[in-house]
TrEMBL record:
Xref: NCBIfam families: pdxJ, PRK05265.1-3, PRK05265.1-4, PRK05265.1-5
Family indicated by similarity: Belongs to the PNP synthase family.
Annotated positions binding 1-deoxy-D-xylulose 5-phosphate: 8-9, 44, 49, 99
Marked site: Transition state stabilizer: 151
Protein name: Pyridoxine 5'-phosphate synthase
Record field: catalytic activity: 3-amino-2-oxopropyl phosphate + 1-deoxy-D-xylulose 5-phosphate = pyridoxine 5'-phosphate + phosphate + 2 H2O + H(+)
Lineage summary: Bacteria, Pseudomonadati, Balneolota, Balneolia, Balneolales
Amino acid sequence: MQLLVNIDHVATLRNARGEGYPDPVKAAAVCEKAGAAGIVFHLRGDRRHIRDDDVYALKESVTGSLDFEMAASEEMLDISTEINPHLVTLVPESREELTTEGGLRMEKVFDDFQQRVFPRFRETDIRISLFIDPNREDIELAGELGTDMIELHTGTYANAETEEARRHELRRLKEGAVLAHELGMEVNAGHGLNLDNLGPLVETVPHLNDISIGHALVSSALYDGLETTVKKFLNIMRGG
Ligand SMILES: CC(=O)[C@@H](O)[C@H](O)COP(=O)(O)O
Ligand SMILES: NCC(=O)COP(=O)(O)O
């Protein structure tokens, strides 16, 4: 299991004033030095945080795994195949949302991904991850499509308001991870994870590979510093 830090919201802060700082590239380097195995960014169609220049600079500077999150638009297919990250994570995206609101509806995207999207990546070394909810149907369709990995959407777990709902979501994530593993896919997880909900997730859900964490980690770093915060998250992942 390894931590990939999503640095989108370092760019959000930078863009608030347009002064060029804080610099997502510099933040990524601090995260990697502190022990993160790689960096995630989501280049949105509206460029609200990460921008094209950041993507090229991150490709040059990140030494570990680089996870390019994106909608499966032609524009993003062109940029990602030029950048050649280690993996792309395909996510649903809408302009109105504050953040990604759920996983891909596999039934809806299956034909398009099979005919248009996967062939583009299969001409490259880029590995494909699909961001999906822990539903049997979605996971089985992801397997049928032949994706290398899935990223289980942990947002419903993270937002659960009662202990019962939290336990229910953890059970769904566990069953989803087991099924994906049985079907031969690697299992990543992310969205809404923080210093409180990460521990129960990693204790309960098997087969986890990349865990991507952004908003809560960047927010905690305002209090404790980026290096210390990355180490705190890593400590939880190591059972501390
Ligand atoms: C896929 C996912 O869960 C998040 O990485 C999300 O897409 C990040 O986007 P924002 O940073 O814009 O919330
Ligand atoms: N893939 C999830 C991610 O990169 C980070 O999501 P969040 O921690 O910002 O919600």
